[in-house]
Amino acid sequence: MKVLLVSTYELGHQPLHLAAPAAALRSAGHDVRTLDTSVEPWTREPVDWAEAVAFSVPMHTAMRLALRAAAAVRAARPELPICLYGLYATVSRDLTLGSAGLADHAIAGEYEEGLTAWVNGLLERDSEPSQAVIDLGRRRPAAVPAREGLPPLERYAHLALGGEERPVGYVEASHGCVHRCGHCPIPVVYNGRIRIVPEDVVLADIEALVAAGARHITFGDPDFLNGPHHSRRVVAAMHERWPDLTFDCTVKVEHILRHRELWGEFETGGCLFVVSAFETVNNQTLERLDKGHTTADAAAAVALLRDHSIEIRPSFLPFTPWTTLDEIADIVDFVAAMDLVPNVDPVQFTIRLLVPEGSLLVSTLAAEGRLGRYDTERLTWTWSSDDPAVDELQTRLGALVEGAQTAGEPIGQIYERVRAAVHSAAGRHSEPVSYGHEGRPRLTEPWFC
Ligand code: SF4
Prior knowledge:
Elements: E1 2-7, H1 16-27, E2 31-36, H2 44-49, E3 52-56, H3 60-76, E4 82-85, H4 93-96, E5 105-109, H5 112-123, E6 131-135, E7 158-161, E8 164-171, E9 174-176, H6 186-190, E10 194-196, H7 199-211, E11 216-219, H8 228-241, E12 246-250, H9 253-258, H10 263-268, E13 271-279, H11 283-288, H12 295-306, E14 311-316, H13 325-337, H14 361-367, E15 371-375, E16 380-383, H15 388-406, H16 411-426, E17 442-443
Parallel strand pairs: 1-2, 1-3, 3-4, 4-5, 5-6, 8-11, 11-12, 12-13, 13-14
Antiparallel strand pairs: 7-8, 7-17, 9-10, 15-16
Helix pairs in contact: 1-5, 7-8, 13-16, 15-16
The site of iron/sulfur cluster has 11 residues, from helix 6.
């Protein structure tokens, strides 16, 4: 069967979630084409060619874009079967499946086998009526992702280091997470479990990426230290085969500190930076989100990694239902005090809590009387702050950062403007701060969920 796999957004890297299902479908004998609309034009030709279309939806932004694209496909060819697959696939199933008719099937979790079974079922004309499935099982060995036919790495995010930019390859050594942080979409699907990608599959994928020009690898696991022994083995084997290759990974503060003995190995293995979800510097909010760390822990993690010449690139979630203006001011001051100005993508100062369907926070917010209606367009439960000035500040910062980035302002200058706006709203006095080290390692695409 002719299957078109479509990715709309995957954090600016070459889509692993096109390559992995392409391998599974091709090994089952299907003819697969891929389309990444983040770098390739959307045209009718592949839609006319296809006998089935599947959209990759690994995150919120991808799901919103995919729903628009699915509506366009349905309008153009109403008879074409459509599937959604990935972490967000089963979100808003009342909107996407059944009589609403944007898609015929949705698979979250370990989707490759379910997607193959869905296509096989279409061929045999015995597919089930519309359904949403969460599948964490794996009954066959994982296939090495098939990257042939994807746009080249040059078209995606690069590693910026000093004055140089290097092509980046994106892989995952595990899926899911052993934690259940209240605001995170991953526990909704994985419920505190992980699935390991076999070491030989990860290394074969890295080999293909190196052959395609990658000089840096991003391990995109939700938390690279959920399976620390596995990750150590992967890093050691990667470094042995490609000693010049560098890497980054995502690790929560709690794991950075718990596995402190491991960072020397990772430094030797080429680790340049670690993305870590700091979220806020208010211990009460951190507790509400069930983050498992305090502000002092976050500061200790920065210092620990710097002892190994590894930088942290924190992500923040400043705007939650409990946020005060003082809390936002504390976040921007913490960033300067910890010498993290060049490490924080300015968009991080503007992020507002999303509460997707099934989020563990829904019951908390409902009990506190903070839950509004479900916004089917934005795919989130709505909420508003106790203090309208907080919502106003978020809108203002969003516009400020978007305008400054479009104008190409340097990161330090954007930080200064964000800090002045926040301090003015919170009634704090702003003294200029010194910042530098613009050459610290980062990816050229800001992290955006
Ligand atoms: S540790 Fe990270 S990935 Fe895991 S549940 Fe918490 S926020 Fe999600």
